[in-house]
Amino acid sequence: MDKIIILDFGSQTTQLIDRRIRDLGVYTEIIPGDSPLTEEVLGSQTGVRGIILSGSPESVYTPAGAVPDQRLYTCGLPLLGICYGLQRMTQDQGGLVEPLPEREYGAIGVTITIPPGMPEHAARLLTGFDSTVPCAPLLTRFTAWMSHGDTLTRLAPGFREYGKSDTGYPAVVIHESKPWFGLQFHPEVTHCEGGTALLAAFVFGVCACKAGWTMEHYLEEVQADLRTQVGANPVLLLISGGVDSTVTGALLLKTLGSDQVHLMYMDTGLMRKDETKTVTATLERLGARYLHIIRCEAEFLAALKGLEDPEAKRKAIGDLFITIQEREVARLGLPDGYFLAQGTLYTDLIESGKGVGKKARLIKSHHNVGSPLVEAKRKVGQVIEPLDRLYKDEVRHLGCLLGVDDAVIRRHPFPGPGLAVRIIGEVTKEKCDILREADALYLEELKKRGRYDDIWQAFAVLLPIRSVGVAGDARKYGWVLALRAIISADGMTADVYPFPMKELLEIATLITNTVKDIGRVTYDISSKPPATIEWE
User: Fold this and answer.
1) Is there a common fold for 3-206 and 422-523?
2) Residues 22, 215 contacting (CB under 8 angstroms)
3) Which residue from 5, 178, 285, 330 has the fewest beta carbons nearer than 10 Å?
4) 3-206 CATH
């Protein structure tokens, strides 16, 4: 099978490159940016047709900037450098990279110059290549998505500038005789106009890949891996009832059978309204035989008492999850060799600084990634995360193949730490009850109005402040609630959902009239980046 290798230098969007190309039907493999490029990796039997160099939070002129194996430049394969990847190629080949006086960030226009006598490989990337492929010829003027503080101040020998940003810096450079390309923007991000077409031009036009990758293929592959890794050992899945853990449960049940799979659901007191009932019904429909419901609200609230820092709350929840799991496993009598399964997605890993390479930076700790107890289990090879190469929309596709109910697949994402990261400041039972009611009312209204499926994720956040208001003739001092609703393709970037003002006012009024402890409602209009989707 044809494939593209992606060298990961720690960018938060490396996996986006991977999945954009997989969406085109071409297999991709991400490896650390400084991996040895041996015959085993790039040999003729591997099917590799091209290499992409990812972005990075580092600079090429500092010791922290990873350097690729220099066989990269003698292997004869097409190369595409994205952001840091372009700067890395420039530095390695004798050009100069220096800091910008002012960072280029966000949507910035790019103008392409197509000179007469352009080399064939440059034409394949910039002007379209094959009308049979669903990829329109690229525009000579488009809006790119940028995120960098360095620029090329001297091109490497043999390279020529083909595109310039509106701020006056090189945006597209191509080697005159070799199939080496560089983009000083991120085509993998959905906000980049023509970005997917540009990646398709590289994959199909330059690298001559043939499409052969599907989610059905992924399912076959991951099932084979699970059977090999787990063998006859029992598997315990900590399940929340969200899309990720439910699809993981369906995958385990379909692959290993109900006699080998134990599903443990913890009623932490931090869950959505009526979550335990919903989860139980869903898992029983999937054929679960061993379903263990653990009532542990008091323990979680006690562990969170007095904690206000978001990372401290996430760590406390993560540690307690595993502590209770180990205690309950002992009661179940599972052997020491049992495997712990988690519905970890790649977004969880890269935001926790656990990307493929060693250069990813921590954005926030996820309870199933950053906990020291999880890491200990991981070290002995007893953690399985069959979704850790997938994004949310891909997980939904996989869930369809596995027969998970459509209503479950369409559920909006819900964080592992639950309402604890949607209550700003200290978490109490009173606050959980208030937020649970307001959030349920909000989501139900979205469904009634036919907007739920248009939104990637919607939820309410309880703020740590009270505001004066009036209820009837009485003075009211109630909590402030923030509503959040975003649209996204994969969760890595997100825009604010553009509610009609009339509907937003109606929903806010309904909440303040129905949930007596809420005195004021606001709407969060922050995109990602710079904000994250969750508040904590």
Assistant:
1) no
2) no
3) 330
4) 3.40.50.880
Nearest alpha carbon to residue 534 among 435, 431, 416 = 416
Task: List the domain boundaries for the chain.
Answer: 3-206, 215-409, 422-523
Task: Looking at the structure, give the CATH architecture of the domain made up of residues 215-409.
Answer: 3-Layer(aba) Sandwich (3.40)
Asked about 83 being catalytic, the answer comes back as: yes
The per-residue pLDDT for range 196-220, each reduced to its tens digit, is: 989 999 999 999 999 988 889 889 9
In the predicted model, what is the mean pLDDT of residues 233-255?
A: 92
Q: Which fold has domain 422-523?
A: GMP Synthetase; Chain A, domain 3 (3.30.300)
Tell me which of 83, 192, 296, 432 is the catalytic residue: 83
Among 449, 377, 443, which Cα is nearest to 414's?
443
Residue among 245, 212, 280, 220 nearest 401 (CA)? 220
Say if residue 158 is exposed, middle or buried (CB neighbours under 10 Å; 0-12, 13-18, 19+). Answer: middle
191: annotated active-site residue: no
CA distances (Å), origin 484, targets 342, 406, 422, 458, 533: 27, 23, 11, 5, 8
Count, residues in the chain: 536
Q: What is the pTM of this model?
A: 0.71
Distance CA 90, CA 159 (A): 9
Identified catalytic residue from 121, 148, 186, 262: 186
Please name every residue paired with 7 in a beta bridge, in sequence order, or none if there are none: 31, 53
Tokens of 201: 């031009």
CB 54 within 8 A of CB 11: yes
State in Å, rounded, how far the first CA of the chain is from the last one: 42
Choice between 332 and 477, residue whose per-residue pLDDT is larger: 332
Three-state secondary structure call for residue 36? coil
Distances from the Cα of 266 to the Cα of 281, 348, 353, angstroms: 15, 20, 26
Do β-strands 339-341 and 3-8 pair in parallel, antiparallel, or remain unpaired? unpaired
Give one DSSP letter per residue of 376-407, joined into a string. Answer: HHHHTT-EE-TTTT--HHHHHHHHHHHT--HH
Please, what is the average pLDDT of the chain?
Answer: 88
Look up residue 528 and give its DSSP letter. B
Kindly report, residue by residue over 279-328, the tens digit of the pLDDT: 899 999 999 999 999 999 999 999 999 999 999 999 999 889 888 877 88
Among 58, 104, 188, 351, the active-site one is 188
188 is catalytic: yes
Rounded to an integer, what distance in angstroms lies between the CA atom of residue 99 and that of residue 116? 33
Give the DSSP letter string of 337-362: TPEEE----HHHHHHBT--SSS-PPB
Per the structure block, which two tokens stand in for 42?
A: 């790039």
530, two tokens: 């710079």
Does residue 145 or residue 174 have the better pLDDT? Answer: 174
